[in-house]
């Protein structure tokens, strides 16, 4: 690098640029915050949804599955599992049956543990996943397979 | 530590040694669990229900994070006194924190392995302040508190050292990077009930670490080693350092937006995330130019060729993994199809290995012979084995990346692009990818062999040169 471009100038770009873009990031975060209520149907975020999120977290579901595309890539996406597995009428019974049936015990198949969730916990998990499926995700995933 | 080590400028630098040794032990654990998961990808019920995949993955990723943190801390304890031109403020505190962090780390990993996760959550009172069960932040809340305590003690120690001593660009940059690391980790305690908001701030830890402040730490470690092994003027090196990290922050902060495309955040991020993250390869490319330029302009032939190889290798591999593989799927219209696919895993592996595993090994390679009072470099034989370890690990990781990339492309083709009805389900798609997962597993075995070579060379340096010469004389 040429001598006219000094270390001091480089340092100023680093500090100035870092601070400037962090402030821009904070402004964008403010904007994002103003959109969450509508984009996530926050009004429909019931206590069951909140409890279901805790069930999701305390059983480390993210260790195998993805949720809105984030997590492990070992098991199916669950952000839209509500739509894939029955929707309003059929999803909740499906989830109850599915959780009870684990592990499926098919030799060589990826296996999901038995988490011994209570009826209430499965209900809450179903509420959480149904709410999640209705978040405005800019139309992701491309199809229902997730 | 009683005997004076003539190869250290300051004796207190020796506290780095246990940090480096323990980092490598955790690295071994990480690779073992990586192999277990690699096998579970093809033999789905391997070790089930003893070690379910989610547990193996948690151990694999948490060990990675913790061994890198040990590596960064060891690097700071070695580098900051030398830059500040004085002894470390408190070597005793550094050793106490080592044992605290090591014990907390081991207990947490044992908790993952021995207790069902829900039980661990109950045992540690997760419901009081729920922070568990989010990717990479699976640690019980009490462990997270422990990490904060260790980080504060650590920052105090190196901060005091720096304040009382010489302040160089390298130590300033490392210090800002480490403070940033601690500050952004605090967001791991913020777990909003709204999933979209939770994910948004989760990235403040994850992205602002690996594509933000960790780049400052990496840059300062690289600059330090380059000064030492090339003898190039500090002014030149520090100017490069500032330019690189300026680019890292200018592109990387708004670049966080490439994680906000599909998690419920507004559409403005599709544009901002795409544009800024498309520029994120720039700092990594600058690092390649930096390392090769400095090595070409070297004023001395440093005897530690292995360290020079790591220093150049980390920049190239980081550029490929973080830069090229990141860019491949960072534009929103592409990411719409690739998000959360095997392509993501491909990128993650090469980026973490290239940028962070390799920079820590660069530092260890440079510092360890001195810490062991062997001199500037280990003997030629140890270096040869280390170079073998370098190439075996690096080529294997490139292969892992290529196989996962192939798997990801086929996955997108089968599962994502077709319309509803025509698209293959996730599980059926995985069956189609088996051949790639087998190849990835073989490459993983190659990586483990490389790691063994690396460890063999690491142990060899323990020998005092005189003891090595003795059997040779007999022969």
SSE blueprint:
The complex is a heterodimer of chains A (146) and B (475).
Chain A: H1 7-39, H2 47-58, E1 66-67, E2 70-71, H3 81-84, H4 87-101, H5 119-133
Antiparallel strand pairs in A: 1-2
Chain B: H1 16-40, H2 53-84, H3 91-114, H4 117-123, H5 141-164, H6 169-185, H7 195-230, H8 234-255, H9 268-278, H10 281-296, H11 305-328, H12 332-338, H13 342-371, H14 380-416, H15 426-432, H16 434-460, H17 465-474
Please characterize this protein's 3D structure.
The complex is a heterodimer of chains A (146) and B (475). Chain A is built from five helices and two strands. Chain A has a two-stranded antiparallel sheet. Chain A has two domains: 1-39; 41-146, Orthogonal Bundle (Cytochrome Bc1 Complex, Chain D, domain 2), CATH 1.10.760.10. With 146 residues, chain A is mainly alpha-helical. In chain A, a hairpin with a 2-residue loop joins β1 (66-67) and β2 (70-71). Chain B is mostly helical and 475 residues long. Chain B folds into two domains: 1-167, Cytochrome C Oxidase, Chain A (Up-down Bundle), CATH 1.20.210.10; 227-461, Cytochrome C Oxidase, Chain A (Up-down Bundle). Chain B is built from 17 helices and no strands. Chain B has helices at 16-40, 53-84, 91-114, 117-123, 141-164, 169-185, 195-230, 234-255, 268-278, 281-296, 305-328, 332-338, 342-371, 380-416, 426-432, 434-460, 465-474. In chain B, α14 packs across α15. The longest helix of chain B is centred in the last third of the chain and has 37 residues, at 380-416. The two termini of chain B are 34 Å apart.
């Amino acid at each position: 690098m040429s001598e006219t471009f000094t270390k001091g100038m480089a340092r100023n770009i680093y500090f100035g640029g870092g601070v400037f873009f962090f402030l821009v990031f904070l402004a964008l975060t403010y904007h994002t915050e103003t959109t969450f209520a509508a984009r996530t149907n926050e009004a429909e975020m019931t206590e069951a949804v909140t409890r279901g999120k805790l069930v999701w977290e305390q059983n480390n579901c993210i260790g195998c599955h993805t949720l809105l595309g984030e997590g492990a890539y070992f098991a199916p996406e669950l952000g839209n599992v509500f739509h894939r597995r029955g929707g309003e009428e059929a999803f909740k019974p499906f989830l109850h049956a599915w959780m009870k049936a684990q592990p499926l015990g098919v030799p060589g198949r990826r296996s999901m543990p038995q988490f011994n969730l209570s009826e209430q916990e499965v209900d809450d998990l179903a509420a959480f996943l149904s709410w999640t499926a209705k978040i405005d995700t800019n139309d992701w995933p491309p199809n229902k397979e997730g | 530590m009683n005997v004076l080590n003539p190869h250290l400028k300051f004796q207190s630098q020796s506290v780095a040694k246990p940090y480096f040794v323990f980092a490598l032990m955790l690295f071994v654990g990480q690779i073992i669990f990586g192999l277990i998961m690699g096998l579970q990808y093809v033999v789905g019920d391997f070790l089930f229900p003893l070690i379910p995949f989610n547990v193996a993955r948690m151990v694999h990723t948490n060990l990675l994070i913790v061994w890198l943190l040990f590596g960064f801390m060891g690097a700071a304890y070695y580098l900051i006194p030398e830059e500040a031109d004085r002894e470390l403020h408190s070597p005793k505190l550094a050793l106490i924190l080592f044992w605290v962090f090591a014990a907390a780390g081991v207990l947490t990993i044992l908790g993952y392995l021995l207790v069902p996760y829900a039980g661990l959550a109950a045992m540690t009172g997760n419901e009081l302040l729920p922070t568990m069960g989010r990717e990479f932040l699976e640690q019980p809340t009490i462990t997270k508190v422990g990490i904060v305590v260790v980080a504060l003690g650590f920052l105090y120690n190196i901060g005091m050292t720096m304040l009382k001593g010489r302040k160089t660009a390298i130590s300033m940059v490392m210090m800002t990077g480490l403070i940033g690391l601690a500050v952004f980790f605090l967001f791991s305690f913020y777990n909003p009930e709204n999933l979209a908001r939770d994910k948004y701030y989760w990235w403040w830890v994850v992205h602002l670490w690996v594509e933000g402040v960790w780049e400052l730490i990496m840059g300062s470690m690289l600059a330090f080693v380059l000064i030492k092994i090339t003898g190039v003027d500090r002014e030149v090196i520090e100017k490069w350092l500032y330019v690189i990290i300026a680019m890292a922050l200018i592109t990387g902060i708004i670049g966080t937006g490439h994680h906000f495309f599909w998690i419920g955040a507004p559409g403005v991020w599709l544009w901002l995330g795409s544009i800024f993250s498309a520029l994120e390869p720039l700092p990594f490319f600058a690092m390649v130019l930096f390392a090769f330029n400095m090595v070409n302009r070297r004023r001395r032939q440093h005897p530690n060729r292995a360290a020079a190889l790591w220093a150049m290798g980390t920049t190239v591999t980081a550029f490929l993994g973080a830069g090229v593989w990141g860019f491949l799927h960072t534009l929103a219209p592409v990411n719409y199809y690739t998000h959360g696919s095997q392509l993501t895993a491909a990128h993650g592996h090469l980026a973490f290995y290239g940028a962070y595993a390799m920079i820590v090994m660069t530092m260890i390679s440079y510092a360890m012979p001195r810490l062991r009072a062997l001199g500037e470099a280990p003997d030629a034989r140890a270096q040869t084995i280390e170079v073998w370890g370098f190439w075996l690990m690096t080529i294997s990781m490139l292969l892992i990346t290529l196989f996962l990339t192939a798997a990801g492309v086929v996955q997108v083709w089968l599962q994502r692009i077709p319309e509803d009805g025509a698209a293959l389900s996730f599980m059926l798609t995985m069956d189609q990818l088996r051949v790639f997962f087998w190849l990835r597993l073989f490459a993983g075995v190659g990586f483990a062999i490389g790691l063994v070579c690396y460890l063999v060379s690491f142990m060899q340096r323990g020998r005092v040169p005189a003891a090595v010469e003795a059997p040779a004389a007999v022969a």
